[in-house]
Amino acid sequence: MPFLNEMLAETERKNKNAEALKDENTSGQDIESLHLASKARLSSRFQFDIEAVMSAIRSEIIGQEQAVQAVEDMLKVVRADIADPRRPLYTALLLGPTGVGKTELVRSLARSLYGDADSFCRVDMNTLSQEHYAASLTGAPPGYVGAKEGKTILDEEMIEGRNSIPGIVLLDEVEKASKEVLHALLNVFDNGMLTVASGEKTYSFRNSIIFMTSNLAAYEIQNYEENHRKMLLKIIHRYSKEKGKGLESIVKKKLLNTFSPEFVNRIDNITVFNWIGEDAVGRIVELELEKLNRRLIKHSCLLTFDSDVVKFISNAGYDRQFGARSIRRSVRKNLEVFLAEYLLDNHKFTLEDNDPVKYHASIFNGKVFFKRLIDNVK
Q1: d(CA 36, CA 60)
Q2: Distances from the Cα of 328 to the Cαs of 180, 287, 318, 368, in angstroms?
Q3: CA-CA distance, 27 to 30, in Å (whole number)?
Q4: What secondary structure letter does DSSP report for 377?
Q5: Confidence grade of residue 292 (pLDDT, cut at 50, 70, 90)
Q6: Which part of the chain is the AAA+ ATPase domain (predicted)?
Q7: H or E element: which one contains 90?
Q8: Buried b vs exposed e over 300-336: b needs ≥16 C-beta within 10 Å?
Q9: Alpha-carbon span 307 to 290, nearest angstrom
């Protein structure tokens, strides 16, 4: 019976992982009911509440209003169902340095539409950097092993979407893919279809929102902004217009040096993400602590914290070059490690505790300390 035991153990492991992800995705509302309650008068094949989706995205994506607004504009067109039915619903390229929220924007959209941040087809394009890896996307050519099956790394269910909600596709770090892979995408962007090399199977992207991410031009944009930072107040308005034109020129030049003109011409929208500013760091720390509290639900406990804790983590973790990822590392190093030690030594939930056990975090001598709250009194 060892095989059966292995299957049971594997099923249990998957269930535990699914439960952990469920806590992370908890929104406090039933996603399906929320979308069905949409106030939009127009009836179309897509049913989701734009206002609810954007409210969730704006609460999670900080300091990127241009990118968020582009998503809202796109959702309006998709919800109204007036896009070209022979192309993908939307094809966007998200540009910017590491850690500014490009991938997180896609995850936030998936969480808002499906209730699960992983409900999208993700292709890490850096794994397709070699010419012979193109078959992973387009399938094995005739005569090769696997050609008849037409199998690829694409997830057909995620691409086509479900329950009157469009599918979401993320092509991460697209600039690292081989030319053969990029050529295969031309048909996808143009007519929304991808037929595998053997001709045995066709994937439809006509019900999909396609996002690509890239770090192209990130440091050129940084240098441009730093060179134009010291401008007189009296010419700020003119400077804003010139800055927009200048950035557009830099981005266009970099894109055409990397991708073919026909590839760039098939992209519906190109959005440049801002560097994470110091004014956004505190809110990002608070978001990370909110996520931590969702993960603490399974232990029936809750963490409250002083504003000094947020400032301490922000000051220790802010690094403009590495963005939000450096802030997450600061949360792990300066809070989560010590919280884990405290819970392992002190946390015990009993049936007498009707409500989650509350702990409070504060700063003492340059470190985060915790204590249990009794009757909500610090």
Answers
A1: 23
A2: 36, 10, 10, 16
A3: 8
A4: B
A5: very high
A6: 88-247
A7: strand 90-95
A8: ebebebeeebbebbbebbbeeebbbebbbebbeebbb
A9: 14
Q: How much is the pTM?
A: 0.85
Place of tokens 């970099």: 254
User: Which one, of 42, 30, 25, 120, lies nearest residue 79 by Cα?
Assistant: 42
357-364 sheet: strands from edge to edge:
301-305, 357-364, 367-372
pLDDT tens, position by position, 108-167: 999 999 999 999 999 999 999 887 777 788 777 666 666 566 678 899 999 999 878 999
Torsion of CA 152, 155, 160, 164, to 10 degrees: 170
Q: Cα–Cα distance between 266 and 282 in angstroms, integer?
A: 38
Report the chain's mean pLDDT, rounded to a whole number: 85
pLDDT of residue 236: 43
In 3D space, the residue among 204, 180, 209 whose CA is nearest the CA of residue 193 turns out to be 204
List the one residue out of 15, 18, 22 whose CA is nearest residue 297: 22
Q: How buried is residue 110: exposed, middle or buried, by Cβ count under 10 Å (0-12/13-18/19+)?
A: buried
For residue 81 the two structure tokens come to 């169902």
Tokens 């991460």: give the residue: 172
